[in-house]
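Lecture 7, part B: from sequences to assemblies.

Below are the input chains for today's worked example.
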Amino acid sequence: MLQLLRLVSIRHLSLSPLRTALTVLGVAVGVATLIGIAAINRAVMGAFRSTIDTIAGKADLSVSAGAAGFDEALLDKVRGLPGVAHAAGSISLIAPVKGSPGERLYVMGVDLLDDGFFRNYEGADRDVGHMSDDLEFLNSTDRMLVSEGFAHAHGLKAGDVFALLTPEGTRDFVVHGLLKETGPIKAFGGLVGVMYIGSAQVAFGREHVLERIDVGLGPGADADAVKKTLRDALGPQYEIARPDRRGQSVETMVRSFQLGLNLGSSVALLVGVFLVYNTVAIGVVQRRREIGVLRALGATRRRIRALFALEAMVLGALGSLLGIPLGTLLAKVTISAVSDSISSIYVQVNAKSVTFTPTEMIVGVALGIGGSLFAALRPAFVASKVQPVEALRRDMASGAAELNSFPTAVAVVLLLLVYPATKIPAPIENFPVGGYLAMFFILMGTTLLSPLVLRALQKLYQRPSELVLGVPGRLAADNFARAPARTAVPVSALAIGVAMTVCIAGFVGSFQKSSEKWIDQSVPADLFVTSSSKVAGVQNVPLKAEFGDALEKIEGVGAIDRLRIFQHDLMGLRIFIVSLNPEVYNVRGKPDVREGRLPTPQMREAGYVTISENLGRRRNLHPESTFQMDTPTGVRTYKVAAIITDYTSDQGTVFMDRRIFIEQFRDDRVDNFEIYLTDPRYLEPVRREITERFGTQYDLYVLSNQQLREEAFALIDNAFSVTYAMEFLAVVLALLGVINTLLAAVLDRTREIGLLRAIGAARRHIIRLFTTEAMLIGLTGGVIGSFSGYVLGYIVTKVVGVEATGWDFSYIFPYRLALQMMVAATVCAVIAGLYPARRASKLDVVEALAYE
Amino acid sequence: MITVDKAVRIYRRGKTEVRALNLESLVVPKGQFLSVMGASGSGKSTLLNLLGALDVPTSGTITIEGREISRLPDDELSRFRRDRLGFIFQFFNLLPTLTAVENVILPALLSGRARGEMVPKAHALLEQVGLKGRDHHRPDELSGGEMQRVAVARALLTEPALLLADEPTGNLDSRTGAEVLKLIREATRARNLTVVMVTHDPKAAEVGDRIVRLADGSVVGDEQTRPQAA
Ligand SMILES: Nc1ncnc2c1ncn2[C@@H]1O[C@H](COP(=O)(O)OP(=O)(O)OP(=O)(O)O)[C@@H](O)[C@H]1O
Ligand SMILES: [Mg+2]
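Predicted structure of the full complex, as structure tokens:
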């Protein structure tokens, strides 16, 4: 068998080195994106988890209550409970580094007296074993131990001063000493600072607040029993968990985002598999005689099948091996984009490095080889059907495999299954299996149908091509549909790339259009003031409320709505609580109420809140539904008054009266000062005054309504930039397929080219013949892609998106982009066709005529 | 009129050189039907390729209708072929996706002439070669003889200066072959066309006015045939 492989396959592959190389490259890129994205997803989640884990240290249990925290008095209560041997309170926060845009330091405020039990710190330039005696450290509010990594990056040593953004504005901190990056200092990519809890509370405006209490059990104490003791003693609003259980709601939250990326990367592999199919199928057609000879010499059908399967696996293996270094490269280039997207939408992570696990590499190689094997099944089967007598046939192997009705039937069945598939419920949150399945059915269905479509299009293309491009145009139209099973491959590959691009653009566009309408109606303020981030949400630093008083005094400022936009866990979702002043908001804005009515002051007092459309959908909440939420002041029951359109978070949003929020959550900080001007003319003066007076101190971003809108658009665009890039890769791979197919066509039609040249066709005629065929392939791929992109976009918006975000946007098809993609696919295909065309035109006429 | 003067065609393959053609002189007057014979490898096809402007001689000159074609650039050669030459090969003469009519008018279309103007002419020619009613058949719906007839019609369409045929009947049974030969003979005689035909078959060669025999690239025999009864 291996002999046969060497004699028949390897020789064939090495005789068409370019085609072989393109195929291997196709598999490589597919495998690279697949494992690259898998590794990135893992690295990002790993960065998040490792922060949790390394910080958790040796704690057996931890008590927490979300980002709101709780009163530090609770610590004494915990310490007094049976079974608790150690308990240490802490806060942690992520502070933007002044003068270093985008960089953030993870600051832990820890109780040094007891913290040593849970976490070990190793000093790099001093002994930190007895920090609890270091009065200079304990009594200051600005002394911090920082990681070596952070210190080196900023050229800091003990005694040096650096600035961080705090709710009170920019604050200077003194480097008290450097810590080695071990244990908890490895968290957040090693950008960590440690303060005494009391100091941190003051410095970051969190007086008397703790965010977590780590608990170490006494000897012989049972974790479950202590957990129950804690729950009973503290009340249900506290999450009491083993450290490894934390972070799950975050995983659910980013799941749809990561799935989207996986989807994108699997499309690239799919297109890679198409290339393998193409190459093997072409190989079978071109070697019919050779196969006939083998059969005549006694090779069994099974042997022929095995030969081609093996050949594909060799291609797949080469591609996969190349895919691993390529994937590493890809992951290195992309990880910061993914990490930034997740940081700006969901949760701040600092993922910088990415490595492959052996499993990922094995899976990558297995998928590359397995996919190639799968691609070879049909061509290998066709090959095994070659009769020994074909060895004797002298006529050209035209490659014109007759159309088979079986794939068409399968295609029809797949397309019929699309609708039922969309109705399959998601088995777990944010995992819309049905929608993805429906998309797969559409892609495969159109692929299987495309040979038929090609035949139909040929008739359509003949006339216009001949009119515009002369006989070469006409011949190109004929050739285009001559081996429909083969030409369909690059057409479908292009169609898939185009379809996915159009589909994502459709979703993004629909999303953006809806957000625009939402901002128009519901976010009417003139200026938006946030610290350290353009948009309030995950990355900004909340400011102290008093800052608003200074803003209010500025001339031209009419009203200020102080918004706290606060991530909180609710019913297994990490939602946002938006607390605002309904007096201002309900008058100035026109929230789009979908169900119910906005609550009156009395209703708000009685626990009525407004929720976002997607939260309502995700948790089946309607007006008068009730739900419970943990607050620092106990578990409270809320009632839904109204459901409104809101695009703050894809997990869901609860709107509360700021006054009630402060009361219940003990948190009066402000994420976003929304300023209403007395007159639009004041826009620039007010903005200038805010920026000049407070800009540097508080690292402020002052956005106009228009800028906020642009920012929202950019946020959405960024979230999909990596997916776009992958679809772009898929299109490029498809173009390799165009080159591949045309190179094979040149070979197959060598005699024909010779004949055409003999009866007087000039070189440019031949060039036109092949570039026109390329053009038709591109055009057809673009058209089919746009059509299926339309449907895919609809499914992504109306099925996948609804499941993954809870939002139901009205679908807007991106006509402009679809048109651009059609043109781009056509033009790029022509460019891809130039090389094969040139090769055809350079053929020596006499040799071409003698070719068989 | 065709003049070949000291035409040499040498094929180089690595270090070995093959002198495929070494023709001192050959003159074919207008309207003559020349048959070329010779053993396999004697240079027949090489000669035909040179005459057909498909290949250029390593040295020497070839003149057709007063035009030196041995030193023309590729595009000029192509134009010359489609306007002034007609070809009939042994097999695979037609483009499989085109109908008989379309195959016939192909050279004219390549010259940029309008389809409408050529189609009636092609229909008439197809009728002349005995393919009435087959105009819209594709090659795979035609027999070998019929395909050769289409090729003849195509070669006649542009009223070429020279018709070249490389074993046009090599793939046909003797009866069909004889019919196709007769057709070529009559059609070219009626139009006073010059024909150069390569053949292995002495009987086929007899159809010509003159038979030239090649061996090792040189002329070793040149004789007029007895005039045949029409
Ligand atoms: N492309 C080429 N490269 C090298 N040698 C060639 C090439 N084409 C032809 N020859 C050689 O030139 C000589 C003449 O070849 P040619 O094809 O003209 O012979 P022929 O008389 O047509 O033979 P046949 O009757 O078999 O068709 C032969 O020896 C052949 O091997
Ligand atoms: Mg020959």
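Note for the exam: The mean pLDDT of chain B is 89. Keep this in mind when comparing with the next example.
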